[in-house]
Amino acid sequence: MRLDTIYRMKNTETIYKTVLTIAGSDSGGCAGIQADIKSISANGGFATSAITAITAQNTVGVNTIFPIPVSEIKNQIHAVLSDISVDTIKIGMLQSAEVIEAIAQTLAQYPIKSIVLDPVMVASSGQLLVDTSAMDALKSFLPKATLITPNIPEAQALLGINAVSADTMPDIAKKLGKTFKTSVLLKGGHLENCTTLMDVLYVYDTDSLHNFTKTQIDTKNTHGTGCTLSSAISTHLALGNTLKEAVQRGITYTHQAIVAGKSKELGKGNGPVDHFYKLH
After folding, report:
1. Is 194 a catalytic residue?
2. Which of 91, 171, 195, 279 could be joined to 117 by an S-S link, Cβ 3.0–4.6 Å?
3. 160 counts as catalytic
């Protein structure tokens, strides 16, 4: 066998399973791009990135946000996708209609296998983080996603509804999927007075619902769990799992990372999960 044939075979067998995360940077290292890269790496993927904003933040809160120019966001995405075979795109907070539209136009130029979109729109205080134009642009972009991962406040904002309970979560997940023509993982972490939490997956292609339950962990160290979960799911899709399998593996990993990090300390506020608990 010729040496060049052997070289090509070896490269094919050892190619990285790669995720491109498009999100903001968290200087405190708990959420955003930093959490994404940790989660992708811990789950066996190779992380590439395009940074949409730089935040000065820590475990207590966000001090300032510096948006990256749209042209540079596009340059980062082009630089990665023109060279590297990316298996999954993970998208986090998109702060403006201009950024959302630019990312959508840029990704449309490449053969994207799957997109996991975490629609970060609502602060922990309940305040909307995006304006009306950004919300409209986001809604237009959601059908391009393979999976969206809203929490309950984000589902309420997307559908314009009020109360959501554990009993209504399956209906809400399905309504989101039917409305935006995509699969939905509706996260139940914001439900109150529950010892057992439920996440609901609606698979658009098969019109099917799947429930995932877990025990609620008493801890303040949950900063960045949404980023961690969506990145873990993205990685398991890149590794070749079905959507249901990727979601199950992502939920299991994130839950175990919360358990491992519940008693650890970082800063004065809400700390991170322990992304690399498997290495201890």
Report:
1. no
2. 91
3. no
- The DSSP line for 168-230 is THHHHHHHHHHHHTSEEEEB-TT-SS-SEEEEEEEETTTTEEEEEEEEPP--S--BTHHHHHH
Element (H, E) at 11: helix 3-13
* CA distances to 98, 145, 250 from 183, in Å: 25, 8, 15
59 part of the active site? no
Prediction pTM value: 0.93
In a domain, 6, yes or no: no
| CA dihedral of 175, 176, 179, 184, whole degrees rounded to 10 | -120
In the set 48, 88, 106, 222, the catalytic residue is 222
Angle separating helix axes 132-141 and 97-107, nearest 10 degrees? 20
7: pLDDT confidence band, cut at 50, 70 and 90?
very low
On whether residue 7 sits in a domain, the answer given is no
What tens digit of pLDDT does each residue of 77-101 get?
A: 999 999 999 999 999 988 899 999 9
Identify the active-site residue in 29, 226, 250, 271. Answer: 226
Look up 235 and say whether it is catalytic.
no
Which of 32, 188, 224, 261 is an active site residue? Answer: 224
**CATH code of 111's domain:** 3.40.1190.20
227 in catalytic set: yes
Q: Residue 9 falls within a domain, yes or no?
A: no
Q: Is the alpha carbon torsion for 164, 154, 253, 277 positive or negative? A: negative
Least Cα distance to 35 among 48, 45, 25, 46 occurs for 25
Given the residues 18, 106, 182, 225, select the one marked as catalytic: 225
Residue 51, in any domain of the structure: yes
Structural domains of the chain, count: 1
240 noted as active-site residue: no
